[in-house]
Amino acid sequence: MDTDLIVEGFHGPGGWAEGRRILGLTTRAVGMEWDAAACATATAAGHTVVRCDVATMPTAPFRGRVKGKVDSPPCQAWSRAGKGLGLKDQAVVHQAVEDLANGRDTRAKLLTACKDPRSLLAAEPMRWHHDLRPEWIAMEEVPDVLPLWRQYAAILRTWGYSVWVGTLNAADYGVPQTRRRAILIASRVRSVGPPAPTHTQHPGGEDLFGDNLPGWVSMADALGWGATDRPVPTVTAGGGKTGGAEPFPTQARAALTASRDRGDWALRSGQTVGGEGRAERRANEPAVTMTSRADLCAWVQTRPATTVCATDRIAPPGHRDRSPRGESQFASPDTVRITQAEAALLQSFPADYPWQGTKTKQFEQIGNAVPPLLAAHVLSAATGIPMPATADLAAA
Questions:
Q1: Rounded to an integer, what distance in angstroms lies between the CA atom of residue 294 and that of residue 272?
Q2: Can you list the alpha helix ranges (DSSP code H) found in the chain?
Q3: What is the Cα–Cα distance from 136 to 68, expressed in whole angstroms?
């Protein structure tokens, strides 16, 4: 029987799976996912996914076979960008985790007490951990789930796991996006800790590890919206003096340009700050050469994107924090519109990733996914496999 299997709950379009590719983790993996479009995308990308309801999938067929367990439960119930009903369900979810950790399945009863039925999905991983005791575990969610991850950590430690729990910023790992996520890393066979950052918000000085790291990758730089005639440097992925992997090499930008030339999506020409004057290119019209975006506001040129959501808009830094509840986080003159392919690049997916489904479903998949480059670093910390010396995401 195969005893070397990675099982991923809530697989989505393949963020963790692409992270495994970047890391070179070739252990056989199977994902579970309910959404049909996400399953189609993952399958088109070459990943093995079973369309099912994770909550009803039995653990028995996997017993004795699982080496690693990965989970990114749906974040909609917990995200402050939505109604945040999961925050009101915290006590119920904590009770479900405690019960499952002790072999008591009270989910059906507790579900009736939830204001959002998706909230209880955050307790699902504990059912698998209790039954399968994988060698290593990696989990990701929005920052508000951190107290729940700490509960998981306390339980896992009593089972002999080394556990690290905390919040990571994707921009610190070369992703051109200040996406903050609650992360749990655990292992039964090695001591674990957070992955060492490869980039920093304030370059020019030594970090806590004594390294001089490069600065965050800006949104404009990642998408080639600034000057693109200069060469893109090749750097190492493991940190140190040369910093983290450049996730958006020339090949990725070339693929993005080629897609534009095929007329795969509308381009903005003559767009001013705030989106006025937008013009959409027709498929039978010549491509617009996008070598300079001087019309964009300064933050796009100098900073990573803010969190990519299930939409075609990127809010400016700090705008969400300034917006009262109920006001659109995108109601700012500095909001920038992007295409599906651009959103995917900001998430560190390859430029030619085969997204499936409607435009709306594609944005939904992209916004809900874990950035592959961040996933690779987390998996490296969980498994002990070092990041490759160089990483070309366009070829991953």
A1: 10
A2: 15-23, 36-44, 85-88, 90-101, 107-111, 124-132, 146-158, 219-223, 250-261, 298-302, 319-322, 340-346, 359-368, 372-383
A3: 5
CA dihedral 92, 93, 96, 102 (to 10 degrees): -120
Q: Which residues, including other chains, have CB under 8 Å from residue 69's CB and lie 6 or more apart?
A: 6, 7, 8, 9, 125, 128, 129, 132, 134, 136, 137, 138
H helices, E strands: number in the chain: 14, 9
Q: Is 95 exposed, middle or buried, given 0-12, 13-18 or 19+ CB atoms closer than 10 A? A: middle
Cβ(73)–Cβ(144) below 8 Å: no
- Does the predicted TM-score (pTM) go above 0.70? yes
Would you call 144 helix, strand, or coil by DSSP? helix
- For helices 124-132 and 90-101, the axis angle rounded to 10 degrees is 10
- The percent of the chain in helix, strand and coil, each rounded to the nearest 5, is 35, 15, 55
What is the C-alpha to C-alpha distance for residues 138 and 357, in angstroms, rounded to an integer? Answer: 28
pLDDT band of residue 326 (cuts 50, 70, 90) is very low
How far, rounded to the nearest angstrom, does the alpha carbon of residue 197 sit from its chain's CA centroid? 16
In this predicted model, what pLDDT tens digit does every residue of 92-107 receive, in sequence order?
999 999 999 999 999 9
Instruction: Confirm if 252 and 351 have CB atoms less than 8 A apart.
Output: yes
Helix (H) or strand (E) holding 171: none
